Amino acid sequence: MRKKLLFKSRSKKLRFQFAYRMIGILIASIGLFYLALFTVQVVPQGKEYLDASALRIKIVPKSGISSIANQLQAQGIIAPAWIFQIGARSLGVASKLKPGTYIFKPGSSMGSILLQLGRGDRVREAIKIIPGMTIWQVQEIINQHPALIHETKGWHTKQLLEALGLTGSSLEGWLLPDTYLFDPDDSDLSIYKRSLAAMQKQLKSLENEKPLVPPLKSTYELLILASIIEKETGQASERDLISAVFHNRLNKGMRLQTDPTVIYGIGPKFDGNIRKADLLRNTPYNTYIHTGLTPTPIAMPSRESLIAAASPANSKALYFVAKGDGSSHFSESLSEHEKAVDRYQRKKNSP
Fold first, then answer.
1. Residue 266: which domain range?
2. What angle do CA 212, 215, 216 make, to 5 degrees?
3. Looking at residue 162, what is its pLDDT?
4. What's 109's domain CATH number?
5. Please, is 200 exposed, middle or buried when counting C-beta atoms within 10 Å of its C-beta (0-12, 13-18, 19+)?
6. Are 177 and 263 found together in one domain?
7. Distance between CA atoms of residues 116 and 103, nearest Å
8. 181-185, 233-237, 262-266: which is most confident
9. How far apart are CA 286 and CA 171, in angstroms?
10. Is the pTM of this model over 0.70?
11. Which of 53, 199, 267, 294 sits at 20 to 30 Å (Cα–Cα) from 70?
């Protein structure tokens, strides 16, 4: 009986020793795996670095873990797919790997590559639409950006409007000024779609906040007026006062008589010097000749100009003139305005 108990005790002890050894081997194996994951360098093959310190890799959207492993291999990072997949799961990033264009340094480990993919630490490009830009200026910077795929370059206006789901004759005014980040090799059409969606969202928000102020009859008329305010504003604090002047003139049936509309009617060939002959030129955008708003916006208005167009200041002013320091003098009567013009413009320009 005693021998039987001793045998059982020794057998149990051996089983524990075996289990401890297996656990030790497992821990050592995991440790070695992680050591290899972060210390063994992945050597690109069959591809050249962009320069001495960068390899550009593109991961397409909606790629699974095995697809990403194949894309890395196809673009020069040679490593067994099973190591990549086990490494991604063990690091907890298997479901977090993000598409985009990445820059990897020579000699990066598989572990560092996986963590970079998991963080989405990728290359980003940017297009900046500045308030007051015209559609032809926006198209120029989009067409010239080297990181975009130029799908729309050479399209007629009608074709671009149809692709964006817009009716009308022009895309002018419909793109909200902002900085738009994108991945290299994105389509230029995506920039148009995002900036259009941003403008439509802003207009919808204003529409929901308050009704249109007469004489404005539509959101599009609000967009047109906001673009004129954008081009006439010298100081941001005066937007609502400039808006009030235009609202007041429209309500009285007066012509807006604003130079930026004349300049827009001249088009991209405008040389920066507005002449008396230009003020007499009969284009649809000449508000010295035609009463009311212009047929389309004349620029891309900022959020602030949209708000000013929707909420003019409580003012009876009908005129304003630049004072030469970025600000304007506002007048309620023509006689007061003439005096202001003499003070700030005529005397300054006289020999």
1. 227-349
2. 45
3. 96
4. 3.30.1490.480
5. middle
6. no
7. 10
8. 262-266
9. 19
10. yes
11. 53
